[in-house]
Amino acid sequence: MEIFDQSKSLIENLSHLSSTIVGIVSLIIIWQLIVAVKSLKTAKNSLQQAKDEFTISSKRYSAHEAAKLCEKFTDITFRKINEFERNNVELVKQYPKVLEPIKSWDSSSKIIVANPKETIESVDKIFNANSEFFLNILNEFEVFAMHFTKQIADEDIAFQTVGKTFLDYVENFHPIILIINSGQKGTAFRNIRELYGMWQNKTKRQTLTQLSEKVKEELEKTVEKKVRPFGT
């Protein structure tokens, strides 16, 4: 096979040759593009698989952390606090029982208590006599809360497990927290306060949802009877 046609001029032969070369180069480019697209799809699939595996691993870790934290929290509340209460029966009687959810963390906020004769000022005396215990407990509460506010552990699992207990104890410790906050310009126990707000809203939403469903059921059961006047 001759590359150059002897019957044609040099320019015609070069033109024909260049067309052939362009065609070959175009095919090579197209092939490379096809290979590149396939490689890109493979890389994309691998990346998605890696992301899925990372997500699953993260969920497992956060769930495991939540379980460990709940176990430790239960130990704090049911062992340490109950032990303190058993050893300080008279003190517990003097401590005002908070009746309402926390609406404000301001040190001047009014707290509704069950035994108004025991004013919030009496808590100051109780705290000073047992400051080490209260600070240790609240610091452990703060570490517990931080894992959820900083998205280290699964807070939804923890909420379902110890949410109500956490809210109850934070409300009872509210007067103590206010005393500590007053000396630290409101900066103490930020994670406790943040998690309390998150879980209080969740609790409220659950209550409203249940109430809404109950109202809906009652509405469906209630038959409205309409009596039309004559002539209509």
Question: How would you characterize this protein structure?
Answer:
By secondary structure, the chain is mainly α. It has a domain of 157 residues. Helix content is 75%, strand content 0%. It contains 6 helices and no strands. The protein is flat and about 105 Å long.
Mean pLDDT: 78
Question: What's the tally of helices?
Answer: 6
- What is the distance, rounded to the nearest whole angstrom, between the alpha carbons of the first and last residues? 102 Å
Helix content: over 70%
Low-confidence stretches: 1-5
Write down the secondary-structure element order: HHHHHH
* Shape call: flat
Q: Tell me the Rg in angstroms.
A: 36 Å
Which percent range describes the beta-strand content? under 5%
What's the main sheet like? none
Category by helix and strand content: mainly alpha
Subunit arrangement of the protein: single chain
Number of distinct beta strands: 0
Concise summary:
By secondary structure, this protein is an all-alpha fold. It has helices spanning 10-87, 89-94, 121-129, 131-149, 155-183, 190-221.
List the helices and strands and how they pair.
Blueprint: H1 10-87, H2 89-94, H3 121-129, H4 131-149, H5 155-183, H6 190-221
